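Re: the 755-residue chain
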Amino acid sequence: MTDASRKGSSKSLDLFEAGRRDTGDQPLAARLRPRVLDEFVGQDHILGPGRLLRRAIQADQLTSLIFYGPPGTGKTTLALVIANTTKSHFITINAVLAGIADIRSAVKEAKERHDLYGHRTILFIDEVHRFNKAQQDALLPWVENGTVILIGATTENPYFSVNRPLVSRSRIFQLRDLEAKDLRRIVQQALTDEARGYGNRQVHLDDDALEHLVEVCNGDARTLLNAVELAVETTPAEAGVIQVTLGVAEESIQQRAVLYDKEGDYHFDTISAFIKSLRGSDPDATVYWLARMVYAGEDPQFILRRMIIFAGEDVGLADPNALPVVTAAAAAFDRVGLPEGRFHLAQAALYLATAPKSNSTFAFFAALSAVEAEGSADVPNPLKDASRDAEGLGHGANYLYPHAYRDHWVAQQYLPDSMHGRVFYEPSDQGHERDIGDMVRRRRELQLAAVVEGDDGHVEALTHSPEDRRRDQWLVRATGDLSAQLDHVRQRLFAALPLTRHHVVLDVDAGSGLLTWEAIRQVPEGSVWALCTDRVAAVGVREMAAQHLDELDRPVVLEGPISRVGTLVRLQPEGERLRFDAIIARNAFGDLEDRESGIHSIAALLAPGGRISLAETVPLLSQRLTALLKLDTLGEDLSAKVLQAEADIYTDPDNPKVTWEPENLGAIWSASGLVDVEVETEKLTARRRLTSHHLGSWFHPGGAKHRTFASFLRRYLEEGELRKVRDHFEAALLNREVQWSTTYAYVRGQAPTEA
């Protein structure tokens, strides 16, 4: 290694070397930086048991990462933890101070270490968004070929502030403002740690003082610790005790700092929250976000411009007065200014929040898309300018003047022939548009009729109108089949779960992995656990995962019955602490012998507030075989026996697998401790071709444990009658396509949240 590279290395490690030393002259926030993963407080959504990032750090299998979040949430601290635990060489650069030369120096050192010693190098870049495009481009090849593993930290949204190629090669982890419980725990550490905090001094922090500090620091641990340090260091001890009262705490951190950057994420996120609150007709949230922006110094003209846009885009004709009200408020603000102009800001915002909503003005953009896609269609002859060519070409001929007719309206064609029948504007059912909607639709129907009757009158003398490509509009029918039905059920199951990228999900009775693979797509920074109740399914899921997924992305596959799921989870690393944010299943509980025990075992694995989303086929409400064909030719007596035999299947007291009703499932989940349990049924139909395999299974003799359609028929039929029924079924159904109906019961619920 060259002297220059050694020199560059020592500079780059100063921050983290300082983090490893306990020096008394450092600020409290620096002294208390966690050194290992178990000391890290908060961010459980990415570092809790089972989360991808925690597993990657513990296994020292890091790929390039970008940590994104507000100041004081632990981005740099997390990098320090990684530096202390990884076996890789660690280099740190601050993008504010560094340039391309520093990147080249770090890359050179990384290559030398790899070539000489086989060591990997992790390059941590603080404030990575500060690098310009050229600097980020200079880094890209070395990240791509694995010379360095990048860990970037940024307070800006990396999808906007970091080059797309770098983002695509990195996992993004978003850190959140710390919760109150995390902040209290950090203060407790500061007051009890003798080596790095105030554990060797008698400091008493009043409860109301603590709550004030936690409330005002806005989720920023650094701000909190700075305030604690100021309070302790500036308060004289009385009888050896430093008493931090509410008054002292208020002086140490007097005003909440609103996180707001007029050119950054918080600017766009806050205005987005404001607009969405307006759109959602929530006046309370509207004035809150408006106050946040005004308090932080946002330009009122920017807010007013957005409200003027909103009046046209989201209120529109549902309340035609919205635009005049907002523009009047903007004019009043121009004349009055701040601070009194805040009344006009609030008036405009509250008017929009409480106004009826309609986005029907998007009709213009639908028309614009049609123009872009289809080019310029010819103007109908009656609508052309008659002042120039009326005599020679007949332009304007046959135009009907609306004011000459009753109600100042007459049916005639205004769209080009090629646009015949197109609908762009659809009135909403809100406010003013609700009153005009029926009128618009009735007139549209009359317009279409007028076009059909008057087509021949729109042909110009010198040419002819283009062929009407939309005159006949065919309805495209999506053919339903089994795969489409499964996709529909899967979509419904996941739609009921508010999953985030960091959640931990359990797929119960995973089978082929239909739900497992979708869960992996939706929680890439969390983890997915798949319970397979038989060896064949478990092997299949493991092999599929090994073929297509990196090791850290693969599901944790458990093998065993549902009743043992708790034990199977606890046998895994960190299984004792693991709880699932979501549990999903399809046809896992309907066939269980001991349904109650299985459900209680699963419910016990939910985290506080965790949710379930289940779908079960309900045999009692699904397809009856006798409904697939006519029984008349069998004769009245034999038909009645067949119908009775089939009815017995679903009333058999010895077979709870087919006799249960959807409400039974809901009651069991409620009894297991879940709240807000909902049960909904849906009947779906799919095309199914019946083969000899299907009929063979129906008419298999069966046995004491395996009951079939034939075993119930034998209760009423002689052998000859049974053969006649089977022949009838084969003649009517074998190799025929039928519409097969299946009723699903969807069960949703959640575990109680912690008090």
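Confidence is low (pLDDT under 50) at residues 1-22, 449-482.
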